[in-house]
Every structure is written in C-alpha cells, then in structure tokens.
C-alpha cells in the first residue's frame, strides 16, 4: 500500500508563539446558555476596552453576539481562537481549520472538566494579558491527516482536501451484526489482518478519549506518536501499539469482510468504506497550538505559595490525569475512609 501524503515536518511541542499582539480574535462557543452569554459579553467588553483596534469575529450563526463580526474564512485571517465550552468546543474549533494551519487556541472552561481546558472563564483577563504581552506558552497538539482511497487505490473523488482531526479516526462496524475484517499496513508493510468491532488511530491528545475507553495507553500530549487501538478484537493477543509520528498507517477493508466500516473522526461521521476501500492516516503538518495554563504568572501568588512549579513549568497534563482520571486512586471512597475503624 502506498500513501499520497508527504512526511510532515517536525513540530516543536512546546514553545512561545506570539511575536506581536493578535489583531483578530475568533470566538467559538457552545450553545448560548445564560452563563455563556454573560461570559461572552464580559469577554467582548474587556477586549474592546483593553485592546482597542482588535477585531473580534464569530461563526455565522443566528446567535452571533453583539459586538462581533461575522467570520468569513476566505476573507478574514485569524490570529487567536478563544473557545468557551468543553473539550467538544475545541474539537469543533479545530474542524473549522480542517484543511490548513490552526491559529493559537485559548480555551476557557464554562464549569466543565476536560483535558483541553486549561483556563477557567474567571481568569480570562489574566490569560488574555499573557497572550497580548507575549508571555503565553504553546503546546502544539498533534493532529491526524486522513486520505481515502477506492478499490483501485485512487483517491476518492469526493475528498478534495485531507481531513484533519485532533483526537482520533475510528473505523467501526456500526449497526452491522458482523465484525469488520481490516488489513493494517504500516509504511506499506502488512502488519496484520484485524477481525474486530473496529480500529482507532488516535493522537496523544486523543489517547485519553475513545482510545482509552477501548483499552489504549495514555500518552503525553507533547510526544509525537500515533496510537493504534483495536475495538473488541476477536484475538486476545491483539494489543494497542504506539508508532512514531513519521509512520503512515493504512487501514483497508478486507475483501472478505462481511460488513462495511463506518468512519468517524473526532465524533463526526464522515465516510462508509466498502470492502477494498481504504484510509491512510499519518501526522498532520498542522497541529493545534494550545495555550498552556502555566502561561498565567502571578508573582504574588507564587511568593505566598512556595510549593509547586513556577509559571511556564507546571505540567497541565499531570494535573489532569490526577484530577480528571483519578489516576491510580484507591478503590475505597472517601466516605468509606471516614467511617473506617482502621
């Protein structure tokens, strides 16, 4: 099997991004509930007051907030993306730039816990200050590029651009009662014939999403790697594999497969692959530059609290796997511990 995509250039995982203050901001938000409306209004007022001259854009939706311009991708260049919502909002922001480079993403939580939410909305003023004063540090979160081919190994005509996804590309049997039979090729070499409910190819960012639920490993997001995870394989010896980001993985629906494979990308249904058709997945040259929580510096706070890492050094990922996954937590709950006699 061959691939039509070139090897992506090496990406510096953590760096500083802004050489000059942003001149244009795109706001991406989940549904406009009352808390989201209040947050957007406060954010817009702050930007217009503290950073006059900065243009603020929003998707062309019926609920576009007052004070924001309608964003036309072909006309307006964006220097900074601000998201308000959960992890799904950031995945949506990534999909808005599915065919090219993504501007730096500053993500705010609206009370939702998530691996991609370094800032709480209450900290928006300090977070924006770190960006506009060039103090923000960036974690380049890898994306995947996918190209689809027909039975003759020709690129499918309906796909004018390679798809770019942030979490994972999943092949699954959908509503069929039969297992998928999928041939896996790595850099053109046949790896195995997989008989299973499906396969997941994920990024390190996506390793804590669908792949983790299917038994895949947790991979630090600063690494460049592709994670291949089977979904309910027939063979118990079929275990997840981690490949370098330079690898090209081709998944071809076997000619003997009794079911087509549905393809979902970051939770969005995109294709159905028939026997003989395939998808080639490799690292995208366009990662998602995510602004770290450790970009916020508060000298007075760190003078009072000597414990912990200083600004720019704290690893958000370590905090997340402990707080969100309760990594290696005891099975005994706190309630049981309070009433324990031992």
UniProtKB/TrEMBL annotation:
PANTHER family: NAD KINASE, NADH KINASE POS5, MITOCHONDRIAL. Belongs to the NAD kinase family. Gene3D superfamilies: Probable inorganic polyphosphate/atp-NAD kinase, domain 1, Probable inorganic polyphosphate/atp-NAD kinase, domain 2. Residues 299-315 have a biased composition (Basic and acidic residues). Pfam families: NAD_kinase, NAD_kinase_C. HAMAP family: NAD_kinase. This is NADH kinase pos5. Keywords: Kinase, NAD, NADP, Transferase. Residues 294-315 are annotated as: Disordered. GO terms for molecular function: NADH kinase activity. InterPro entries: ATP-NAD_kinase_N, ATP-NAD_kinase_PpnK-typ_C, NAD/diacylglycerol_kinase_sf, NADK. Coiled coil: none annotated. Its EC number is 2.7.1.86. The keyword Transferase applies.
């Amino acid at each position: 099997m061959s691939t039509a995509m070139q090897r992506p250039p090496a990406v510096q995982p953590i760096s500083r991004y802004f050489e000059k203050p942003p001149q244009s901001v795109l706001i991406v938000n989940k549904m406009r509930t009352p808390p989201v409306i209040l947050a957007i209004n406060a954010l817009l007022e702050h930007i217009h007051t503290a950073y006059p001259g900065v243009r603020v854009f929003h998707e062309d939706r019926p609920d576009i907030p007052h004070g924001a311009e309608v964003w036309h991708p072909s006309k307006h260049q964006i220097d900074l993306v601000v998201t308000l919502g959960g992890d799904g909002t950031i995945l949506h922001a990534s999909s808005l730039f599915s065919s090219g480079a993504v501007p730096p993403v500053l993500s705010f939580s609206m009370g939702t816990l998530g691996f991609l939410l370094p800032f709480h909305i209450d900290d928006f003023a300090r977070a924006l200050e770190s960006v506009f004063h060039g103090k923000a540090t960036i974690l380049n979160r890898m994306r995947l590029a996918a190209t689809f081919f027909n039975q003759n190994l020709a690129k499918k005509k309906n796909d004018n651009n390679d798809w770019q996804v942030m979490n994972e590309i999943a092949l699954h049997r959908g509503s069929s009662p039969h297992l998928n039979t999928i041939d896996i090729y790595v850099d053109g070499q046949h790896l195995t014939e997989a008989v299973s409910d499906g396969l997941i190819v994920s990024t390190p960012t996506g390793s804590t999403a669908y792949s983790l639920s299917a038994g895949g490993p947790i991979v630090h997001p600063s690494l460049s790697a592709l994670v291949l995870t089977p979904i309910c394989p027939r063979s118990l010896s079929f275990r997840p594999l981690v490949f370098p980001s330079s690898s090209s993985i081709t998944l071809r629906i076997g000619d003997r497969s009794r079911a087509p494979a549905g393809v979902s990308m970051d939770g969005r249904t995109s294709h159905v692959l028939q026997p003989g058709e395939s998808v080639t997945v490799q690292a995208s040259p366009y990662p998602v530059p995510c602004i770290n929580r450790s970009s916020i510096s508060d000298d007075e706070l760190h003078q009072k609290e000597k414990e912990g890492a200083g600004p720019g050094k704290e690893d958000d990922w370590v905090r997340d796997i402990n707080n969100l996954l309760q990594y290696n937590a005891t099975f005994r709950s706190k309630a049981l511990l309070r009433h324990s006699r031992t």
